[in-house]
TrEMBL record:
Origin superkingdom: Archaea
Family as reported in the entry's similarity comment: Belongs to the CcmF/CycK/Ccl1/NrfE/CcsA family.
Record protein name field: Cytochrome c-type biogenesis protein, archaeal, distantly related to heme lyase subunit CcmF
GO BP: any one term: cytochrome complex assembly
Cellular component, GO, one term: membrane
InterPro entries the UniProt entry points to: Cyt_c_assembly, Cyt_c_biogenesis
Signal peptide per UniProt: none
Domain Cytochrome c assembly protein: 123-311
GO molecular function term, any single one: heme transmembrane transporter activity
Transmembrane segments annotated in the record for this chain: 6-28, 40-60, 94-112, 124-143, 193-214, 226-246, 266-282, 289-308, 328-346
Alphabetized UniProt keyword annotations: Cytochrome c-type biogenesis, Lyase, Membrane, Transmembrane, Transmembrane helix
């Protein structure tokens, strides 16, 4: 049985049900829904963490019956590159991104301001929004499963299944291995730093949405710590990526060349920087409208960066594929985020007027 594929399905169902039951709790304030939602969240988070370790194992031992392993790992690669193959492809990067979201949500619940505000409507809604974001990533993992498996057919040409847990695996005698451009020590550092920074933007976004809906100014207390984390990891990720590009691509002896995807990771860094500066002026009564705007725009820009990287709409050394079902889902997700944020910001702006 394909255990990894089954765990992805279980995590996906658990995450979606955790989101729905968290909404029931928010609207009905029935503690039984909160207890159920937290258990489902734990199941979803544990499922994702276990699948991460399982995929790492398959990459290290080069189990080529899995299409992701075949495409990104091989026996001639050093162990550090086999491990780094975890984020070399779309499925693996979404997997660790989703895992980071679940881990950060758990940290928020049990530490700092999150622990203090845990029983408030603000935290309940922030948690629901965060679980909605996680559910979208889980849907993408279900549709493009990192544990898709090759199986033999009557024609003698193996095919890939994304849904059948019980097919007889077709073991390829070799792995295709990682793209030669990715076989660099920076591969072990640059992508996970960026993905951690991207994932950390989820909490400020969810807090800002909740604060705007409930008109609760305490949202920034939940958001600012994670915005600092995002800024730090994005700074490190972009910096290390610039060194990597200089070593591998040259770019005319420059560390930066305004590659479209490279630039799309810089813009949320700029908005995060602006947020942290604006936060310092809040006690003086300034930037009351700008602060939630920057929190929302930062995350929307991250999703936009994700969309252009995976849709193939922009020509870039970072682009992975042409427009696909996953690209359409991300585009719809981006539309929902932008529409809801615009509505809530407009309501705040005109109510203040």
């Amino acid at each position: 049985m394909n255990t990894g594929m089954g765990l992805i399905w279980i995590a996906g169902a658990s995450g979606l049900l955790a989101f729905l039951t968290s909404l029931f709790y928010f609207f009905r304030r029935d503690p039984k829904f909160l207890v159920l939602s937290e258990k489902l969240e734990l199941a979803g988070g544990l499922g994702i963490v276990i699948t991460i370790f399982l995929l790492v194992y398959h990459l290290l031992v080069v189990d080529t019956e899995y299409s992701y392993v075949f495409q990104h790992s091989s026996t001639d690669l050093a162990w550090i590159y086999r491990f780094s193959a975890l984020w070399a492809g779309q499925e693996g990067s979404f997997l660790i991104w989703t895992g980071f979201i679940f881990i950060m949500l758990a940290i928020t619940r049990f530490t700092g301001t999150g622990k203090i505000l845990r029983d408030t409507e603000l935290f309940a809604l922030m948690r629901s929004v965060s679980l909605f974001v996680a559910s979208v990533f889980l849907l993408l993992l279900v549709l493009k499963n990192p544990f898709s498996m090759y199986y033999p057919t009557g024609t003698g040409i193996p095919e890939v299944t994304n849904w059948n847990l019980f097919v007889e695996p077709f073991v390829v005698s070799y792995g295709q291995g990682m793209n030669p451009l990715l076989r660099n020590p920076w591969m072990a550092i640059h992508p996970p730093l960026l993905f951690f920074g991207y994932a950390a933007f989820t909490l400020p976004f969810a807090a800002a949405i909740s604060g705007l809906v409930l008109k609760d100014s305490r949202w920034s207390e939940l958001a600012t710590g994670w915005m600092r984390v995002s800024w730090l990891f994005l700074t490190l990720g972009i910096g290390f990526g610039a060194f990597w590009a200089y070593e591998v691509l040259g770019w005319g002896a420059w560390y930066w060349t305004w590659d479209p995807v490279e630039t799309s990771s810089l813009i949320p860094w700029l908005t995060a920087t602006a947020y942290l500066h604006a936060k310092l002026r809040i006690p003086q009564g300034e930037y009351g409208f700008m602060l939630p705007l920057l929190a929302l725009v930062s995350f929307i820009l991250v999703i936009f960066s994700t969309f252009v990287t995976r849709s193939g709409l922009w020509v870039s050394v970072h682009s992975w594929q042409d427009f696909s079902t996953e690209g359409m889902i991300i585009a719809l997700f981006l539309l929902i985020l932008t529409g809801s944020s615009t509505f809530l910001l407009a309501r705040k702006y005109f109510s203040e007027e």
